[in-house]
Structure formats: C-alpha cells, structure tokens
Amino acid sequence: MVTLAEVARHAGVSASTVSYVLSGKRSISATTRDRVERSIEELGYHPNAGARALASSRSNIIALMMPLRTDMYVPVMMEIALAVATTARTHGYDVLLLTGEEGPAAVRRVAGSGLADAMILMDVELLDARLPLVREAGRPAVLIGLPADTTGLTCVDLDFAATGALCAEHLAELGHREIAVIGEAAAVYERHTGFAERTVEGLRRRARELGLRTLHRPCEGGYASLAGTLARIFGERPGTTGLVVQNEHAIDPLLSLLREQGRAVPEDVSVVAVCPEQVALQASVRLTSVAIPAQEMGRRAVELVMEKLEGRGRPRSTLLPPELTVRASSGPPPARG
Amino acid sequence: MVTLAEVARHAGVSASTVSYVLSGKRSISATTRDRVERSIEELGYHPNAGARALASSRSNIIALMMPLRTDMYVPVMMEIALAVATTARTHGYDVLLLTGEEGPAAVRRVAGSGLADAMILMDVELLDARLPLVREAGRPAVLIGLPADTTGLTCVDLDFAATGALCAEHLAELGHREIAVIGEAAAVYERHTGFAERTVEGLRRRARELGLRTLHRPCEGGYASLAGTLARIFGERPGTTGLVVQNEHAIDPLLSLLREQGRAVPEDVSVVAVCPEQVALQASVRLTSVAIPAQEMGRRAVELVMEKLEGRGRPRSTLLPPELTVRASSGPPPARG
DNA sequence: CTGAAAGCGCTAACAA
DNA sequence: TTGTTAGCGCTTTCAG
Where does the record place the HTH cro/C1-type domain (chains A, B) (predicted)? Predict the structure, then answer.
C-alpha cells in the first residue's frame, strides 16, 4: 500500500507538503505541486481514509437513516437516498446507509464513534424517538420531514399543508363543491408521520374557507382495498365530484375502478394526485398533480448539512412550496341534475 | 470525547486490556471485564472508528454500488439494499452507499483508500466496466447479477434461465401452444444486463423442447407502450394464449388493457409474471408468478462477503432456484375453434 | 513557500 | 491473566 510518506520521498519533498498539496490548505509553488502530483499519479497513491479520519477527526461521511417501513412509497425513498448520495459526493462526502432496524441507538453509535460527521434522517415522525438522541449527539443533523417540535432542528420537507390547500383551490376553481381525499394507509396516520396529516389539515382548512365539503378516507392501496374505499365514499357522499389521492398504491386501481364503474375522468370525477411526476405521467390518464420533489429534498438536505459542517447555518426549516400541474384528469364537475 | 485511555485509567487497567475486552481476542478475568464494562458504561465510551480502522486496517464497512438507472424496478433495488444493510449490521459491518454516478472509478477510490473492506455490486452487466477494477482492487467483492465472464468472481443471482424455462413448462402443462413474452424496456436488452436475456433464452430453449411457439417483445411499460406491444403480439400471433411478463411497469396496464379488450384472465389468456411477490399479490388479478427473491439476494451477498473477509470462501456463483407459485391468472387455454 | 515533528486513538505484537 | 509499547498514515502546529 502506497503511503503519503512514500509519495513524499518519491517527489523529494516533506510529508506535510504532500498533505498540503492534497488539501490545498496552504499555497504551494507550481513546480512542487507538479512534482507531487506526478508522484501521486505514478505511485497510484490513495490517502488512507482511517488515518485521515483519525488525524483530522472528520470522516467525510454522512449517515443517512432510512426507515424500514413497508407502507411508504419506495421509489420516493430511493430517489431521496440517491440524491443524497450523489450530492454528497459533489462535496467530497460519502454516505453511510442506516436502516431503522437498529433503532434510535444507531444515532448514538454513529455519532459517538465518529463514523459519520453528520446525519440525515428520513421519514421523521411527529414525535420521533430519534430526536432526543439527535439533539444530544452534538453532530449536525438534517431531518427530511417535520416533527412536532422543531426547536434546534433543521428540517426539509414539501409544504404538505400548502399542498392540501392547493388541491382544494384547484378543485374549487373548477367549480367542485364536494371532494374526497383518498389517503395513505391507516398505519401512516396512526404513526403520526406528519406529512399525511398535514395535507389533510391544509386541505380541510382551505376547503372550509372556500365552502367545499370534504371527506377523508385512509386506504391501504391495491384493488380490493380501494374498491371498498371508493364504495364508502360514493355511498356517504353521492355528490362527490373531486378526488384527491395521496397514496401511490391507490392510483392505478383508482383509475381502473372508476373506468369500470363508468365514471369518466374528468367528465364525471376529477382526480388530483399528490405523487412523484413520473407516477402522474405514467398513469392511464395523465394526472393533474402536485409533485413530490424527492430529488430536491435530498439535495437540499445535503446542502444544509454542508452549511452546518462549515459552521455557517443555524437551525431552520425549509418548506418547499408545492406546485400543481394541470393535466388531463381534472376539469369542471358535471352539470347538476 | 472519551478515549480508550480514559476508560483504562478509570477502570485501573491498561489500554490493551480495555481493547481486548472490546474485541474478545484474549481471555479476561470476569472481575476485570466487569470493571472495564462498568467504566465504559459510566463514561459513555464509544471506540473511535477512524483510529480503529487505522490501527487494524479494517474499516468494518462494506461498499454497496447501486446503479442510477431509471429503467430498473426500484423497489427490488431498494429491498436488496436494505437487506444488505441489515444483514451487514448483524455481522458488525456498516454499508456505504455508492451510486453509479461516479462511474467505475468509485471502485478504485473506495478500495484504494481503505474506506471499505469489501464491496457488493448491484445490477451487473454482462460486460461490466467495473469488473476489471474489481479484479485488481484486491478486496473481496460479490456481484449481484451475472456477468459474461465470472472467472475469479463471486456472484449471486436468481437463475433466470431456469425461471424462463419454468414459465414455459407451466404454460405447456396447462396446454398452451403459443406464448409471448412481454419483456423489459429495449434499453435493458441493449445494455446486456444479462437477467432479461437469460430469462428469454431459458424460456425459448424449453419452449422449443416442449413444442411451443414463442414471441418476445420488449416493452417500455406504461399504458401507451403496452397497448402497442399487445396489439403487435396479437396481430402477429392471434393464437397466443399465454403471456409471460417480465416488467413490473407493464403488469397493471396489461391487466387493465386485457380487461378492456374483453380478454378474460385466465379464461382467454393466461398471464405468468416474473416479479416480486408483493406485486403479484397486489395486482387486480392475483398473478401466477416466479418471485424475485430480493431480500435473499441481499442476504446471500453479505454472507458471501463475510466468508471472504474471514478467509474462507473462494470464488463461486450462487444461482438461486426459481419458484413458481400458481395463482389466479393462469389456467388451461380456451377450447379451440 | 517548505520542513520537522508531535500527536490523533487504537491494535497487536512482545513481555511478564 | 495483564501490561508495555511500537506503530498505523495522516494533519497541523510551530519553525524557518
């Protein structure tokens, strides 16, 4: 294994010079730099990560804690994770993948050992068991999701309350008066994951202001479950003309079932989805939707982590503004009677 | 920050004793061990990862290289990754997440710096650009997927040739004579990802033996694309009564379109899918399918890595045997005429 | 602009 | 069963 000392000898300079060439932390004459770089190249030198971490007390690693949930939509999680990983690389950091398996203790282990310089937590719940540990970990952390108490924390999330409101507004403007929300699985609400509840609250509040009647039904996703949900919705509120879906597993079944029931979209029922763009575009009807900006969230989280690692940046929450794109699934309600 | 030396002082023993209590690499009297463990507890000691890595030249980290492809089915990738992470933890290892972004050079960087002790590569292509680097990296590696030349390499994969054969057999036994394969996106074949081609080859070979006619059509997934694919299949081979789908994005559209076209499943057309169990179960018809054992693949990969890290275990490929589960989507073909 | 040298915290011989 | 100690390879003062 090639060491820095060997590079130094080969280039006829001191170890510190090689180190500084690598880090750029002090000015080096062009000739020296050239010589060192050539030696590095020739010898195929790679700085040892462990030695670096020990000497500098920085590992250049960010821990990413993912949940192990089965009820979250996987592609979004994945897109966030990949965005985190690639963005981190552009800042010279690698990403350590932690699953929820280990529980909150993982926070302590990774922070305490200095394995990671900072951490990003995904799928944060309103009262997340990891938060106390994060606060006392003494390492920069960024949450993806919004807990109940954000004091001292930095969070990134889509503004789901505004998202719900936006959906209500869009349907109201089109002239709808009765709308229903097909939500996430019941477990998601019970766990108080925040985003799902915020969407519904935002939608309800705005709907009230606009004089819309609303109904909210959680849904497991899949055909069987959705058939039941749909039946109950139209059973309780036959006048429903607008549906807001926040559940990726419900979208395909929803469109299929509506078609089978002879309800045309958007002539008889308008559908607005809260989902990733790709899902909205690949459905059998191009869906009017509010996009979930997964990549943006991952990217932002890393950038906030970097700010903290560099000493700039204090706790603050970033709520990304929702954007609604009108496509083929929404339109005016059918004429009354 | 609490160091091993402080623990030693606090417990009234030497540093090496603390180290050995931690590693269990030599016998310690019960009393000493107790004292040390109590000190560790009281002081809240966590061994420093960098120092450990430097002194032992082992980071206890496994690198996991994921692709950035958009045409692979994400939940499978994710399931593998999570299985890798949790299994690694049970062996005391953490997982570093590398995306394809950095290209093959990531292999060199991670191996050369000693950041990871071993690596697992996902989505390996027949002629994968990372393989030369893996071979010369001098670190244990396990591939998920099967390249063209496996000499000196350890691979894990579902036996896709046998999978294809199994699908052909099932349909043949039911009495079908003309079957079609709805495959992955064309790009997947062009890239020579192996698994997709192997399935079709295995299916074709067995079909020939059984006297079945076959047709294979790649498909992008989504409604529009699938409608075209389906039209071409039934246009060229009106007698087709069995469909094998190896494309998760095609499943929902396929079932919807068949229904709309008045082709009943399985009365008019049998459908056999190659997909994760969950997908087979959540479709509008419970699908006869060969499962993609994502978790098992992740778990196996880690176990093979561990064997190598412990010195046991030479290069060898593990092909997991496919299992076909008969559900509601396959049955005898309609009576002729 | 460059060098010398003191650690960083831990592991693993080597001794006892 | 336990202690002593020499590094592991790099960063970063402190000197020059």
Answer: 3-32
